[in-house]
Amino acid sequence: MSCNYAEGLSPYEHKGKLGIPEVFDDDETVEVKVAKLAEWIRHAKHVVVHTGAGISTAAGIPDFRGPRGVWTLEEKGLKPNVNISFDNATPTLAHMGICSLVQSGHIKYVISQNIDGLHLRSGLKRTNISELHGNMFVARCSYCDREFIRPTSVPTVGQKEIGMDCPWVKAGGRICRGKLRDNILDWEDNLPDKDLDMAEMHSTIADLSISLGTTLQIIPAGNLPLKAKKNNGKFVVVNLQPTKHHKKADLVIHTQVDKVISKIAAILGVEIQPYLPEIDPTCILQTLQDSTNSWKTRSLSDWTIAAASVSKMKSIAAAIKDNKPKSVSRKKRKTDKVNEPISDHEEEQDLFVPTRPPEKQEICLAELSRKNTEIVPNGVHPKDSNESD
């Protein structure tokens, strides 16, 4: 549950602006704005969607900073009345619509701050998503760094051991010696390198970034949609609350995300597939629990970002960068810490900044000039959206 997840995090004082009043566009305004957004999607070459807790409220999972959010109520000594368990929640119309639009080719990539696992359970493939803050249905090996889908949500948060050995079998039949940990970030934990690499590169080449159900207060995730503006692209916000970057948006739609996604799919002629347990990797794995060491189960549960995917995106991003005019950012580097609120002062500065220490920047640049030959085995990759994260 969101409350249990929040309670499992370390104490943290600066949780951003809480309980900002919601704004609703009238039906006619929504129709006009959605039609414009659908047209932009139709003509865009690389659409990237950024999702926050607001897309999961229709599943019964409370958001964090909305009027009835977990941290908004916590400040008043209260808890949300509605708080379904992660295991019992199912993907919303927005989750299924996003997955269908990815499959149709209209959306190229999804970058999510959500830890509820609903994108995975909607059938979205690993090649199409970065999960910057973790996933309640994924565990990571402390030794080989591979990630595995679990049939149920992890019992811990904060990257703690969950009492299971890594199931990976190396070449020659050698079993990995690592222990599995949850991959849920605590306050100020570093973001996962591959997820952040892919998120930054897709954001950099995007010509249309769409932010859904988030107030964009958390960095670096909250800054990534703005990279489309650096690429002469468009930036769109769909959220009931005002966001940190409203003034920079080319279009702002104040209504439920479910409504927007369903209307866009209809305009684009994309049928939104319903949620079925048969497409949910967590449900499939529940039927295979008696054979947890089998090759089939290991292959199905592998949620690791392939090194080849990162290498390919680096080549694409580097090629695009070489064809663009060089620009210099004067803003100091920010550390890639999860859940660090953006201050009012920072909002007015240049937000196109590196999110790694200098030594990692040098490594990333070096990697652009050589081909990464690491092989990662293939596997099956796995809120009426009212409020913001």
From TrEMBL:
Entry keyword set: Metal-binding, NAD, Transferase, Zinc
Cross-referenced SUPFAM superfamilies: DHS-like NAD/FAD-binding domain
Gene Ontology CC terms, in alphabetical order: nucleus
GO-annotated biological processes: negative regulation of transcription by RNA polymerase II
Enzyme class per UniProt: transferase
Residues of the active site: 133 (proton acceptor)
Stretches assigned to the Deacetylase sirtuin-type domain: 27-271
Annotated binding of Zn(2+), by residue: 141, 144, 166, 176
EC number: 2.3.1.286
InterPro entries the record matches: DHS-like_NAD/FAD-binding_dom, NAD-dep_sirtuin_deacylases, Sirtuin, Ssirtuin_cat_dom
One GO molecular-function entry: metal ion binding
Region Disordered, residue ranges: 321-357
PANTHER family (alphabetical): NAD-DEPENDENT PROTEIN DEACYLASE SIRTUIN-5, MITOCHONDRIAL-RELATED, NAD-DEPENDENT PROTEIN DEACYLASE SIRTUIN-6
Family: Belongs to the sirtuin family. Class IV subfamily.
Protein name (Swiss-Prot/TrEMBL): protein acetyllysine N-acetyltransferase
Taxonomic lineage: Eukaryota, Metazoa, Ecdysozoa, Arthropoda, Hexapoda
